[in-house]
Each structure stands twice: as structure tokens, then as C-alpha cells.
Design brief:
By secondary structure, the chain is an alpha/beta fold. The protein folds into 2 domains: about 230 residues, Alpha-beta prism (UDP-n-acetylglucosamine1-carboxyvinyl-transferase, Chain), CATH 3.65.10; about 210 residues, Alpha-beta prism (UDP-n-acetylglucosamine1-carboxyvinyl-transferase, Chain), CATH 3.65.10.10. It is about 30% helix and about 25% strand. It contains 14 helices and 28 strands. It has a 5-stranded mixed sheet, covered by helices on one side. A 4-stranded mixed sheet has the order 4-5-3-16, with helices on one face. A hairpin with a 2-residue loop joins strand 4 and strand 5. Helix 5 runs parallel beside helix 6 and helix 8 packs parallel to helix 11. It starts with a strand and ends in a 6-residue tail after the last strand. The mean pLDDT is about 95. It binds shikimate-3-phosphate.
Length: about 450
């Protein structure tokens, strides 16, 4: 499948986006461990999240899916049963890393496999701390890469100083900690997304935030079954927020998006670049804040994205790099070496595609320097099998002279199954104006005063 994209007409739209990917994975796992039936609404039925559903089914959990976005999970009070065969994580690193943590403390053996691209991604970062907890894990590929064989063992709580700010590493250790003796603490160099911590609390699992920022969990607890509504994925909304934000006169409302502040840093970046952004949290009942984001486009200017911001915009960097190419001046992304070990080497992929579209880009070891020219030319670009590269360059095509073709775009299924329909709507807007007036009470996003 490929996307053929042409310059967008003026964007004036009100949208919702599919459920949050990170939260969907975690909701399925915690509901499965809980002591009863949990109804999950707003679930993201993407390839990656379905891998986690299938894995939990393979571990003996009954999960019904009466509608694509609704799951009924029959928690079995932490009682998992040995899988009949190997568990296939597809291309989902979240599934593989979180499950490695979960399975380390189970009284049975399991084997996790994945597609070739997943098998190239670093797993040593979860295996090392889990071994410290007493786990018996063998990574069968070169340099501790998948397949991963886990012989469940009795775990003990540890305090771990993670060398990487990674929510997947943190979550794998916390899930192992739930089955370990005593207290398990994870410290990160800078904070990563905190969905696991929030959801553990929501399922009434006792955790503690340490004074120095670390997060602790106490073993031997059963999550209390509860229903959960998953908000829209702000990382999916990011593609349309940049599309509208980079278009002078563009105007977009995103309804019912997750507004967890470990995920909304992109809004501050867009404000720095000159867009007007406002957000309103409308609900925090279920641990995760959710609400509306409004963006009004403007001629963007370059910015620097680095340091503590990086883990909190890690998934948005491809589309923010596109925003940089559309901006005047230079946009610099530093300290983002993690991009090299995502679904593809995203630094190389972004540089390659932006150059194909006529932008001037310098590839750095840990980022990019993009000299924006305000315009791009249509080109044939590659997805590199990476959903966020495919979507970022489809949006780039909305600003290019001539057609842009994004090749091998089926990978968008991993996080945004109906991306193509949303793209078609942006290119061929129905003559419907916004159904609801813009909320005047929306407060400026953080970053306004930066
Ligand atoms: C995720 C964490 C991030 C992110 C990924 C989802 C999660 O990865 O890039 O898309 O759900 O925990 P890292 O933990 O490797 O930074």
C-alpha cells in the first residue's frame, strides 16, 4: 500500500483520534492480572496492541472484543497459565519488553519471538535489570536480541538506576516487581511517560513516588478490577496538529485526546515554533487526563529540541522534524540517539526523506539539524517499515509542490489503522463547519510563556 498525497486545502476541522497505544497495552495487561471483569473502551485495535491481547489470551486470559474498540477482559487474579507455544510479538517492542518483565516471575517457561525488525531492537536494557532481580532469561539472538526465553523464577525487589529514560524499561521492571518479594524501585535519568504508574494506582496497586523522583512498587498485590476508558492518542493527533499548525490560517480541534503532561511536550514545542495552541483538560476521573486541544496555524520558526524534552516527545520527533523543514530558520534536535533504535533508524530515515523532498538536513549522531526553507517538493519517499515515518511524510506531502508518494505505508496499522481515511478527509474536506464552537475557556498550553 502507498499513500499519494498532494498539497492540502485550508485545514478547518474537528477530529478525534484512535485510542492511545501505550495506555491500551497497559490496560490489557493490568486488567488481565486483576481480580475480575474489566471493560476497556477506546482501545486501539492496531496490530501492536492486538499482539498484547493475543499474548494475554495465550497466557490463559479470556478477552472478548464485541466491538473493535471495546474489550471485556476477564482478570484471573494474577493467575497466568503456561502458553501452548511461543508468543509472537510481531513488530511490537512494547509487547515484548512489558511481557519480558511480566513473565520473569511466573512459575513457567515462555518464549517471545518477533518479526525481523523487532529482533534487531535492543532487549538488553530490560534483561539486565530483570536478571538482577533473579530472572532466568536467555536472549537467543546476537547481542541479547530476540527470541527471548524466560524460565520463570522467584524474583526479589531491587533498586535500579536505568541508564536510559525509557517507559518500556520502567514498565517491565514494575511488572516484574509486582511478582517480586519486597519493594522494587526504578530511577530514570529524566522522566519518561508515566502511564504504568498511573494505571497501577488506578487499579489500586500500592506504589510510591520517591523523593528523588524514582517510582517504587510493592510485590504480591492483586490489581482491583475496574473499567477503563482509554483517551485518544496525542502522538497520533500530533500529525494533524503539525499539519494545521504549519499552515497559516489552519485551525484544528482535537477532541478527547490524552493530555498526560508526560506526553504533551509537543504542544510546547509547537508554541515555541509560533503556532497558537490551547488545551483544556475535561476529565481526570480515570487517572489519565483527557480533553481538547486547539491549534491555529502560523508561519513556523525553527527551534531547539533537546535534553529533558526528548523522552517526552520521542514519538513526535519525526513529525516535528517535518515541522522544522516547513519553518524558517534552523531546527536542531539533540540527545535523541534513541531514535536510532526505533522501528527503523529514524534519524537516518528522516534525513533521507527530507532531502528527497528538497530540504537541507545535517545528520548528527544524536539528532538532526534542519535548515527550513518553508517549502518542500513532492517526491517518492520510503516508510522504512516505520509507521511514524510513513505518517510524518504523508503530512510533509500536504505542504509540497507536486505529488508525494509514501511507499510501503501499510505499517501505519501498527498505531493508526484509519490514518488513510483521516488523510483523505484532510485532502478532501467535507463542506461541514465545526459542529461546536471553540471553547473560550481553553487555557494556553504550557510553553506559552517560554
Ligand atoms: C512506549 C515508550 C517509548 C515509545 C514507544 C511506546 C511505551 O519507547 O517510543 O512508542 O508504551 O512505553 P521507549 O520506552 O523505548 O522510550
Amino acid at each position: 500500500m502507498e499513500f499519494r498525497v498532494r498539497r492540502a486545502p485550508r485545514i478547518e476541522a474537528e477530529i478525534t483520534v484512535p485510542g492511545d497505544k501505550s495506555i491500551s497495552h497497559r490496560a490489557v495487561i493490568l486488567a488481565s492480572l486483576s481480580n475480575g471483569v474489566c471493560v476497556l473502551r477506546g482501545f486501539l485495535p492496531s496490530d501492536d496492541c492486538m499482539r498484547t491481547v493475543q499474548a494475554m489470551r495465550a497466557l490463559g486470559i479470556k478477552i472478548e472484543q464485541p466491538e473493535p474498540e471495546m474489550l471485556i477482559v476477564h482478570g484471573k487474579k494474577r493467575l497466568l497459565t503456561p502458553p501452548a507455544g511461543e508468543i509472537d510479538c510481531g513488530n511490537s517492542a512494547t509487547t515484548m519488553r512489558l511481557l519480558t518483565g511480566l513473565l520473569a516471575g511466573q512459575p513457567f517457561e515462555s518464549r517471545l519471538v518477533g518479526e525481523a525488525t523487532l529482533s534487531r531492537r535492543p532487549m538488553e536494557r530490560v534483561i539486565t535489570p530483570l536478571r538482577e532481580m533473579g530472572a532466568d532469561i536467555v536472549a537467543e539472538g546476537p547481542n541479547e536480541s530476540p527470541p527471548i526465553r524466560i524460565r520463570g523464577s522467584k524474583l526479589r525487589g531491587i533498586e535500579y538506576n536505568s541508564p536510559v529514560a525509557s517507559a518500556q524499561v520502567k514498565s517491565a521492571i514494575l511488572l516484574a516487581g509486582l511478582f517480586a518479594k519486597g519493594k522494587t524501585t526504578v530511577n530514570e535519568p529524566t522522566p519518561s511517560r508515566n502511564h504504568t504508574e498511573l494505571m497501577l494506582s488506578y487499579f489500586l496497586v500500592r506504589t510510591a513516588k520517591e523523593e528523588d523522583g524514582g517510582i517504587s512498587i510493592f510485590g504480591d498485590q492483586v490489581p482491583e478490577s475496574r473499567d477503563f476508558n482509554i483517551p485518544g492518542d496525542i502522538s497520533s493527533a500530533a500529525f494533524w496538529l503539525v499539519a494545521a499548525g504549519a499552515q497559516p490560517g489552519g485551525h484544528l480541534l482535537v477532541r478527547d485526546a490524552g493530555l498526560n503532561d508526560t506526553r504533551t511536550t509537543l504542544l510546547g514545542v509547537l508554541i515555541r515554533m509560533g503556532a497558537q495552541v490551547r488545551e483544556a483538560v475535561e476529565d481526570v476521573d480515570q487517572a489519565e487526563p483527557r480533553g481538547t486541544v486547539e491549534i491555529t496555524g502560523a508561519p513556523l520558526k525553527g527551534t531547539v529540541i533537546q535534553g529533558k524534552e526528548i523522552p517526552q516527545v520521542i514519538d513526535e520527533l519525526p513529525i516535528l522534524a517535518v515541522a522544522g523543514a516547513l519553518a524558517s530558520g534552523t531546527t536542531t534536535i539533540r540527545h535523541a540517539q534513541e531514535l536510532r533504535v526505533k522501528e527503523t533508524d529514524r534519524i537516518a530515515a528522516i534525513a533521507h526523506n527530507l532531502r528527497a523532498m528538497g530540504a537541507q538536513v545535517i545528520e548528527l549522531n544524536d539528532g538532526l539539524e534542519i535548515h527550513g526553507r518553508g517549502s518542500l517538493r513532492g517526491a517518492r519517499v520510503a516508510s522504512f517499515g516505520d509507521h511514524r515515518i510513513a505518517m510524518a511524510f504523508a503530512v510533509a506531502g500536504l505542504f509540497a509542490d507536486g505529488d508525494t508518494i509514501v511507499q510501503d505505508a501499510q505499517c501505519v496499522q501498527e498505531s493508526y489503522p484509519n490514518f488513510r481515511e483521516a488523510l483523505d478527509e484532510i485532502m478532501n474536506p467535507k463542506k461541514v463547519r465545526m459542529t461546536t464552537p471553540v471553547i473560550s475557556s481553553l487555557s494556553p498550553s504550557k510553553g506559552d510563556d517560554e
